[in-house]
Structure prediction request, 228 residues.
Amino acid sequence: EVQLLESGGGLVQPGGSLRLSCAASGFTFSYDAMTWVRQAPGKGLEWVSTILGGGTEIYPESVRGRFTISRDNSRATVHLHMNNLRTEDTALYYCVRIDKWPNRFDAWGQGTLVTVSS
Amino acid sequence: QSALSQPASVSGSLGQSITVSCTGTMSDVGSYNSVSWYQQHPGKAPKLVISEVSDRPSGVPDRFSGSRSDNTASLTISGLQAEDEADYYCTSYATSGTWVFGGGTKVTVL
Prediction:
């Protein structure tokens, strides 16, 4: 069974930094692309970043230059490094596996909450 | 990349059929088979219910189906059940090499 467990969320001031982690199990981690998707309170889903098995990174304009996704295939872990955080980055951040690239986000963690506030 | 357009809400009676639309452009929905749908109950993580426009993953009831016409994808729930009341999101891969989500549709079972 595929399992994704996020950690690292918390309260941070505007302009601050945070690193999220996602521990994966139940599949061959190095084969699959991994993604972060976020959901602001009461709002919809927003794609945040993706990293392919070989390490290629992809970002939307909204976070490019501030967020960095990375992975450690030996530890089956993916990270999201977030810098220069803004109040609008407040959201529940989900770790997601991409199956049958680029077709489907087939496994989701339970999310970790990031609150950016002074 | 603009978000895909979904109706804010759709409702139907128990046992009825409903359809949720997801309108994009030739740069996303109209170009790729990477259109998928996710169901989200309150306080829960999203769950994949349709992938690659019309493929239903193992374990998803066959009352869920997907289709596409030009730049608009659709999710149909036939024989609506109480447990189908949830938020539904579409997403598509795009020519920019990114993904775009719809704004979400709240499905209410009357």
About this structure: The CA atoms of residues 48 and 70 of chain B lie 22 Å apart.
